[in-house]
Automatic annotation (TrEMBL):
Record keyword NADP present: no
InterPro entries in alphabetical order: His_Pase_superF_clade-1, His_PPase_superfam, Phosphoglycerate_Mutase
Protein name (record): Histidine phosphatase family protein
CDD domains xref list: HP_PGM_like (cd07067)
Gene source species: Apilactobacillus nanyangensis
Keyword Transcription: no
Keywords: Hydrolase
Pfam families: His_Phos_1 (PF00300)
């Protein structure tokens, strides 16, 4: 069987109320703000002439709404509806879902002498930040790095096995800040700064084949 390679255009969803309030938002489902909707519309305009053979998003309101805005404005005879999957959610923050972002990462990193998210990722990795947050969670229900990637690998396999996708095709994925960071950290060969989240509505381009993923562009606004 021939190996196919396709382009995966990963868009972070539009701004939500939890983004405004600076709260952790993994499986929480805050809606888009007016700015988030207009930002998604601007991203949609940039992608309006691109033909997407397939589209994917998580089952969160913010991701599905962003996907609908982009696909509704598309003029290149793209797929009309995204495939929705819980595999493609961002990290589950457990006890810290909806909590103040800085305070949550302080709780995770301070026991290790690292009081901020940036400190943790700079010294270790995004994966280690996930592990520290799980340790700090009194219920230990936040996802560890291993648990997160076990789920996300199923999401990537779901896309790879889409029989509608052929060599050279363009595919849309609406995703989340830490999900984008995770993809870039894992497959970006250390070329990109993953201590700061990508902007809402930003675009990250990956080349995906059966056996590898390559980061081509990151956080394009």
């Amino acid at each position: 069987m021939d190996v196919i390679t396709f382009n995966l255009y990963v868009v972070r969803h539009g701004q939500t109320y939890f983004n405004v309030y600076n709260r952790l938002q993994g499986w929480s489902d805050a809606p888009l703000t007016d700015k988030g909707i207009s930002g998604a519309e601007k991203t949609a305009e940039k992608l309006a002439n691109m033909h997407f053979t397939a589209a994917y998003c998580s089952d969160t309101t913010r991701a599905m709404k962003t996907a609908k805005i982009i696909l509704d404005k598309n003029t290149a005879d793209s797929v009309k509806e995204p495939t929705v999957s819980s595999y493609l959610r961002g990290e589950f923050y457990g006890y810290y879902e909806g909590s103040d972002l800085e305070q949550s990462w302080y709780a995770a990193g301070a026991p290790h002498g690292l009081p901020t998210f940036k400190d943790i990722v700079s010294k270790y990795s995004l994966g280690k930040a996930m592990d520290f947050l799980k340790e700090a969670d009194p219920f230990h229900q936040a996802e560890s790095n291993e648990e997160y990637w076990k789920r996300w690998d199923q999401g990537l396999d779901l896309i790879r096995k889409d029989k509608n996708i052929h060599d050279g095709d363009d595919v849309l994925l609406i995703s989340h800040a830490n999900a984008v960071l995770g993809l870039v950290e894992r497959f970006g060969e250390g070329k990109y700064d993953v201590t700061e989240p990508p902007a809402n509505g930003s675009l990250t381009k990956l080349e995906v084949s059966d056996d590898q993923v390559k980061v081509v562009d990151y956080n394009i606004q």
